[in-house]
Amino acid sequence: RGGARARSGGKMASTAAGKQRIPKVAKVKNKAPAEVQITAEQLLREAKERELELLPPPPQQKITDVEELNDYKLRKRKTFEDNIRKNRTVISNWIKYAQWEESLKEIQRARSIYERALDVDYRNVTLWLKYAEMEMKNRQVNHARNIWDRAITTLPRVNQFWYKYTYMEEMLGNVAGSRQVFERWMEWQPEEQAWHSYINFELRYKEVDRARSIYERYILFAVLVLVHPDVKNWIKYARFEEKHSYFAHARKVYERAVEFFGEEHMDEHLYVAFAKFEENQKEFERVRVIYKYALDRIPKQDAQNLFKNYTIFEKKFGDRRGIEDIIVSKRRFQYEEEVKANPHNYDAWFDYLRLVESDTDAETVREVYERAIANVPPIQEKRHWKRYIYLWINYALYEELEAKASKRTRQVYQACLELLPHKKFTFAKMWLLYAQFEIRQKNLPLARRALGTSIGKCPKNKLFKGYIELELQLREFDRCRKLYEKFLEFAPENCTSWIKFAELETILGDIDRARAIYELAIGQPRLDMPEVLWKSYIDFEIEQEEYEKTRNLYRRLLQRTQHVKVWISFAQFELSAGREERLPRCRQIYEEANKAMRSCEEKEERVMLLESWRSFEDEFGTDATKERIDKLMPEKIKKRRKLQAEDGSDAGWEEYYDYIFPEDTANQPNLKLLAMAKLWKKQQQESEAAAMDPDKDIDESQT
């Protein structure tokens, strides 16, 4: 068999040395993709599933004598040593080896393995823990102490060693030893939980004084080492004193905490805890002082819990005034946030000012007003200033009516008037309010000076009217005349001013001046309400019973306008003149109006005139005049006209009513045609009625 293998080996070597054979590649006939594709994800999933398949358990080996046992131990130790030799840094191999030796009660061997492992990696926490647990499990207390001492000496910042060590000593009943370990731990200045563990340890053995000294040491450590120690440590210390009924000590701890944190690092939780402590001691006034002190100094956004607890306290122990104070304080905080977010939100300022005016002193209100008026609108346009100006008005009214400070009120008005850009716009109400304030202070020269300054800087109709009304109330008619003259020079188109000026002269009995004012007014080239002015002038002449002048005014007005209401008013004036020839005069006016309105395109106005004329004839006319006016009344007909849209397209037809007047000769054929159409329609209706009822026709013929 060996010779055959040698011969075959030699043959293969000779073939490889000669010419290397290339394997044939199978030709793929169908290169289309398969219907079921195998993805990489599928391959990985199948591999993972096959990993979960259970392997058959190894066969059980029964050891029957000591020799077999020693052989088994030798094989296992060799396996563990080989694993350690392969990779010494894998601590799990050392731990498994030691635990196996421990299971065989080979404590000395296990201890040797742990020592060898510590030589490899003494920083491994798990290794120290397993080593110490093995010693404690086998009741080797001194060995365990030795290991814990070595562990905390080597790795003093691993808190788990200290916890395990102190717990072991406490379980052994060695309280002094456990306290000694805690003291060694505290020298390393550990974290907060370590101190509390020490305190709880002392409290378990009723050592309250020792616990208090530990709290003091921890607080001192926190003050000296930490820049800003946590508030909860002070609170825990105070609650510890309160729990053991040392109320004076607890209050002192809270006071020390408040003093330590000061006003720069105030925390609402400290003050809430302090207030609840005082509440438990029934010191309600102290509670209220604590809450108010904190609310005045802590930023509002950080004091939500403080507000809530203060409100609950006042509802439980306070009166109505106290509850209102806390609610007002909370609303003030809300308004402060609103105005801080948008300083030009004047509605928020109004609400805020209304709140502080109702519940605070004058200095606080003034401070809020000053903050509000400091937010001047950035754009010099009147629409942006309309809300802002009311801040100044309310400020001045508050100083005058609530604070009773006339000097400050005058300063507010003057500051506001200096701030306004009068060259661009002004607010007449501010000038008038200032003048009225000075009058209330019985300082008439200052009031006149203010209004005169306003007219000189920024004349407005409202300023002139307010100044004139002031002088009228003071019965200074010469000043009123001068002001009206200035007013009409400023706004000659203002018909109301002309009318008021003339009425003033009428009241004063100077009829000629009043008539001259009216003449000047109607002679102006441009007027805003000329019809009101003419009507006032006509009513003035009628009151003076100057009928000829009134007629002349109507004739002059008709030269300017042929409006139907002017003709009707003229006719009614003639009717009410109260003379014998009033009816012929009135009828003559209607005749003239009808002739003048024939050329008017607005047929509705002409119809209005004829209806007024017919009403006059129905009341004062004869049968002949009534018949004549009836013949003048138009026919109302319905017509259609074509509509066009905005783009010029056809929009359909529209029906409308038109009037045909008998007097218009151009419309006579239309009237004749309309009359003939009506007659034909009447005949058609009669013939249809006869056809529907033949018996009636026979009866009528017999009759």
Automatic annotation (TrEMBL):
Compartments, as annotated in UniProt: Nucleus speckle
Region (Disordered): 1-28, 683-703
Domain Pre-mRNA-splicing factor Syf1/CRNKL1-like C-terminal HAT-repeats: 92-384, 404-555
Signal peptide: none
Highest taxon of source: Eukaryota
Keyword line: mRNA processing, mRNA splicing, Nucleus, Phosphoprotein, Repeat, Spliceosome
Chief place of localization: nucleus
GO biological process terms held by the UniProt record: spliceosomal complex assembly
InterPro entries: HAT, HAT_Syf1_CNRKL1_C, Syf1-like, TPR-like_helical_dom_sf
One term under GO cellular component: post-mRNA release spliceosomal complex
Homology family: Belongs to the crooked-neck family.
Function recorded in the entry: Involved in pre-mRNA splicing process. As a component of the minor spliceosome, involved in the splicing of U12-type introns in pre-mRNAs.
Name of the featured protein: Crooked neck-like protein 1
Organism: Eulacestoma nigropectus (wattled ploughbill)
Gene encoding the protein: Crnkl1
